[in-house]
Sequence to fold (400 residues):
Amino acid sequence: MKRFKDVFIGVILGAMITASIALSGAADGAGDWSRLLPFSQQNLLVMRQARSILEMYFIDGESGPDEKDFFFGSMRGLVSATDDPYTRFVEPEQLTEENMEMEGEYGGLGMYVGARDGKMLIISPIEGTPADRAGVKPLDEILKIDEKVIVGMDQNDVVKMLRGPADTSVKIWVRRAGEADLMPFDLTREVINIKTVRIEMIDKIAYVRLNNFHHKTSSELEEALAEARSKKADGIILDMRNNPGGLLNVAVDVASQFLDGGLVVSMKGRVSRFDDALFAGEGKATDLPLVVLVNEGSASASEIVAGAIQDRGRGLLVGMKTFGKGSVQSLFNLPDNAGMYVTIARYKTPSDKVIDHKGLVPDYRVEGGPVTDKSKDAQLQKALGVMKNVILAPQNKNAN
Fold:
């Protein structure tokens, strides 16, 4: 009887709340105000009732969500209804952190994560960071952070859990294809300072490692290519394995360094003003033979560059099929310093290929991944072989 009584009281109370809200809405009058509301009055009444029930019955209600928490939660729910993992609401504090990240410095583990098919995947670890040193790999699925199962959680909340002050620890559990058991990784957060480009010479071939597309990437790449010229490199191997992408304009700048004008990428959106075609400018290395390394951790801006180089016949791709993130997001700033990243278009390579959820297929498929000992890096060794035997050898023969 007591259980029935509690339920009955809850039902009556809910009805009373609904009635009072309806009466107050009627007293105010709809008028022009209704045109400013984000939902119908009926739906807003339901939301008001839901909040009132939480505030009254939720067991931790006294120390639970406040006005801001309810509002931000509603915004996340609104945006998640698109069912697009890249369209997301970002709270003010997180937006500040992400802007810092685009500048090339932030605190965390050094890995990029993204949602796909209901899974929270590691897109790629950043070279030289805690995640990279621990051995996490692209397409590892994160299932647990410390003692909390994160399956079904919002991507923003997962990122918050992974980030934190330097010298603090976090444990992640991942599922890896081909492994029967979950794999634990104990990681210590660091201040991540990202240098996006580095270069070294391997047998007169300039090996250029490009691990991200940030504000500084274009200038860093120009310096690397100038060094390759000064050392009289015979060719360039551009390594974009585990490069999760970044800024679209930087991707075009990077492609421009290797292309002699022409189309880099086109975009098609729902709104015509987002339709665009971006073209290469004047580059510094348009005549040096080129091989590009890619893998399943190469995404977004990496795929724009690799797709343009492949389609335009500028170079050959070696490695594994890329991640397949072929959509463009734009940041819409909101009045309270929060923001929304919204997928506004999907891009196509110069030959009109759609990459989203498909990826790029390399000219030479080679399994493996980056390793410290380059002599044991099967993909890099294949790229060197393609450069020397497929590209340079015929050129030298014709020259003779």
Q: What stands out?
A: The longest strand covers residues 339-348. Confidence is low (pLDDT under 50) at residues 1-27.
